[in-house]
Fold this sequence. Notes:
The complex is a heterotrimer.
Chain A: H1 15-22, H2 28-31, E1 35-39, H3 43-55, E2 58-62, E3 80-81, H4 93-103, H5 110-130, E4 155-156, H6 162-179, E5 183-186, E6 189-197, E7 200-208, E8 214-218, E9 221-224, H7 245-252, E10 257-258, E11 263-269, E12 292-296, E13 313-314, H8 316-320, H9 330-342, E14 354-357, H10 359-365, H11 367-385, E15 394-403, E16 406-407, E17 420-422, H12 440-463, H13 473-491, H14 498-513, H15 519-539, H16 551-575, H17 599-602, E18 604-609, E19 618-623
Helix pairs in contact in A: 3-6, 3-12, 4-5, 5-12, 10-11, 14-15, 14-16, 15-16
Chain B: H1 2-9, H2 11-36, H3 43-55, H4 58-87, H5 103-106, H6 108-127, H7 133-136, E1 139-142, E2 145-148, H8 150-158, H9 161-188, H10 199-223
Antiparallel strand pairs in B: 1-2
Chain C: E1 3-9, E2 18-24, H1 33-46, E3 69-70, E4 73-74, E5 96-100, E6 109-111, E7 114-115, H2 118-127, H3 147-157, H4 164-168, H5 175-186, H6 195-208, H7 219-223, H8 231-246
Parallel strand pairs in C: 1-5
Antiparallel strand pairs in C: 1-2, 3-4, 3-5, 6-7
Helix pairs in contact in C: 2-6, 3-5, 5-6, 5-8, 6-8
Amino acid sequence: MKLDAHIPDGPIDEKWDRARFEMKLVNPANKRKFRVIVVGSGLAGASAAASLAELGYAVDCFCFQDSPRRAHSIAAQGGINAAKNYQNDGDSVYRLFYDTVKGGDFRAREANVYRLAQLSVNIIDQCVAQGVPFARDYGGLLDNRSFGGAQVSRTFYARGQTGQQLLLGAYQALSRQIHAGRVTMHTRSEMLDVVVVDGRTRGIITRDLITGKIERHAGDVVLLATGGYSNVFYLSTNAKGCNVTSTVRAWRRGAGFANPCFTQIHPTGIPPHGDHSSKTTLMSESLRNDGRVWVPRNSGDARKPDQIPEAERDYYLERIYPSFGNLVPRDVASRAAKRMCDDGFGVGPSGRGVYLDFGNAIQRLGKDAVAAKYGNLFHMYSKITGSNPYATPMVIYPAPHYTMGGLWVDYDLMSTIPGLFVLGEANFSDHGANRLGASALMQGLADGYFIAPYTVGDYLARVGKSNVTTDHGDFERVEGQVRDRIDGLLSIKGSRSPDSFHQALGRIMWDKCGMARNRDGLHEAIEQIRALKDEFQQNLRVPGSGTDLNQSLEKAGRVQDFLEFAHLMCTDALTREESCGGHFREEYRTPEGEALRRDDDFCHASVWEWQGDNTTPKLHKEALAFEHVHLATRSYK
Amino acid sequence: MNRWRAFFVSTIGSKIVMAVTGILLLLFVLGHLVGNLQIFLGRTALNDYAEGLRKLGPLLWVARIGLLAAFLLHIDAAVRLTLRSQAARPVPYAKTRHSATTYAARTMVVSGILVVLYVLYHLMHFTWGWVAPQAFALTETVDGAARHDVYGMVVAGFQQPLIAIVYVVAQAVLAMHLSHGASSLLQTLGVRGPLFENVKNYVGPAFALLVFVGYVSIPAAVLLGIVK
Amino acid sequence: MNLTLHVWRQKGPHDKGGFETHRMSDVSPDMSFLEMIDVLNETLIAAGKEPIAFDHDCREGICGMCSMVINGRPHGPEKGTTTCQLHMRKFRDGDEITIEPWRAKAFPVLKDLCVDRGAFDRIIQAGGYVSVNTGSVQDANCLPVSKVAADAAFDAATCIGCGACVAACPNGAAMLFVAAKISHLAHLPQGQPERHLRVTAMVEQMDHEAFGHCTNHFECGEACPKDISVENIALLNADYAKGALWAARPKQLSGDG
């Protein structure tokens, strides 16, 4: 596997211009002869499908939900960053670039991040033109809010539903192209494999989730925009259907998987309420602006929070990080909460929770002011927990939220398999080891609206039309493998449901490869995953058949891929012997217990090549050079 | 012409047709009420009014045809839309729990059919004179000429409690139909905005009450002997 | 707590469905409604039966995938709440709960509680967008939008496309869904150039999809998990009249460009 990032030469602010100029173009009349397959209809997928169709390509877009509008991008709350400097507070493309590289703990590619910052301004223009109802001030101009990891106000937002509004904008652009006949939309279709012929991606195999029909789709190029893998933890803020299947399947066909151990655990989730919890719900990061985090000073204190006097409370973030206090970055806040709970200070029924207290804010600002700022979040919290956060502190606990790792891509967003492009959260490129708030939406849309439409064209212009049809022997072979796999799942006829395996896997991953990892734990996890995989092969029960809507079968396939992926994730975590961003190795910390990055040995992206079932994958490294933002330790004390 | 057709067959277009014809029918109901209430001014006043109407001649026919057209368009749209909506839910719910709709809104079809039947009966009674031919034949002599005695006919009709009850019940059904219809047509015609948001829902019931009290006052007055 | 569930089971679109009764014990009041169904499904699998098929995804009330009529009300008894955000503490020990799919000809049942809402997508495809290609745009702040208009647009744009409005409507009408998109774009300057084309195209598609008509019951507004106002329907009606009858429009409507 050769890792060439194809970063254009020249000064960083000219690289993207230069790249675009050097691209080969497809004759407008020839574009409709090329078939582009887009898997996923979230921000990255929908925007790419729409933009490519506008250019004239024949696009096929796939999603497993009943409509492209349901993709999980819709759940993003906070906002989207853009270096517009509308607030005149000194923002610039360079500053957004700098903040993102630093926030990512120096594990992202500078050239990509710079381009992302450049494109951020175009995204806002595009979305406004589509009719996305961003928040406005009384003069009718766009409003901004502040977000973590930045000292300027550059986050554009649509109340607490920015992701929804941006996705609907992309969905509508996509709908327009479907109507024009340039995009064929395949809903309730799950991609189950990639077909590679002569070293080039030629299409995919899908399953129609209603009829169970296995279908072959040939294309000149395939774009994966299938999101992240937080559901490897079972409980995460992701939607239930989010899965790793498409990227794992591509990995098995030769695409490098980069930095799988980089996962983001968001500090303010609503903790699970027992064995039947099916997900964790996120409470916006903005709550930490006024809420104070604390635990009882005495471990095992069973009193109600309002009966614990001030002197017996430990406001541990304010204590440990006096200068940033409750506003430390996500990874730091999450780890501190875990430490408190591990040491026995946790609260709530499970002992896995800390208080987020608005008592002071209510006293200081009044209940109405607090309600005006956070009313909808308080409402959501009380709906889920049945407790009133105006009277009793919230109980929160970190929750898996976003994954920075993904398929390795070059500057053009192409994976190590020619013709296989990877967009949005599914790729690894721009956030390094930790993503800043309001950057995920920015990256998904930059990839889809403004990068892939050019780079895909360049690829097509260079390689020409694929002459491989679905009759090709390789299509038949891969389809056969997909069928065998489904038949295999159905024929085990054991006694455990797919969900119970998923839950068991989630517990292993959360305990051993979650917020903090260590060598012994990761070794144990790998052993446990192996055992669970074996049990899965022998004891899985999938009722029903493969020829109709069978949600157990869908889950079983996804869990099988999560099992395989979990192994890879632990292997990567074991190999990365340093702490950086969301990856915290307990062996590598400063005397004060903070993350200890080891730039001499690990200033690279770890890219894993599949070597076969039950064979350790092969590690490749893409060295990262920091020419503009100099390597430095983050400190929040 | 294509445009009109598209408009008339669309659901919203049909609803707008219903609303506009509904307004015409409402105006008729109001006008008719104002005419009828002249019974309280005495025999001469009411009969003058009735004779005046007849003397309109061709104009009267224009009004009648217009009214009939509105009525038919109203019914046509109602039938088409109702069939459509019935087909829109082939499998009914085992359990339904309403939270916003009213009894009047849910029974528009039934009340509509009853109103049609009532109108036919009313025409048979007072226009064609089939129900009570003797009363219909009553005349009043003014300046030596005999003219139709509408006043006498009405009083004779409502002095029979059964007929009076039929009219009162029919008015209740009509009022129910109007209470939804008059509010609903504002929404259908796109009336909106902060000024109207709450008003809309009260317009119908208020209008219905007015019509009900107005019309029922006549048989009530006859039965109570105020008008004789 | 203990509950008795009557759940609609239907093998496929062309099969006849019926109710199946399940008794649930030890249901935690902290569970969400869908988690309660998860538990039931696990017991069904353990007993070798097929679990109940139901649509769900984000489980935080925003994706619009969940779709159950619970005791005669779409998304259940709590106002402004999707099924996934409904919690069992809203029920009492011993309750009988009837669970049905959205029922509308335009939303055929695929299996058990899953329905096909493709009709909504086709309505949006007919015109629920601003025709702007990627890249051909001006600076975002060149187009001031009053806060009032932006807020009104946003309120309408929060529609999650779940279909509860159709499910709740005694006529199976999709007016609130269509009105929400019409209103979102009609309140913004970006939506003006195509305003009247959009409304006629979307209404034409809506009628084509076998939805019923609006008789102003306003059940849709009550059932809407995002509390979208029925005032938007008045706007839709007015815009449609204008668009259909007297607004100038080109001969051919299409989404290309």
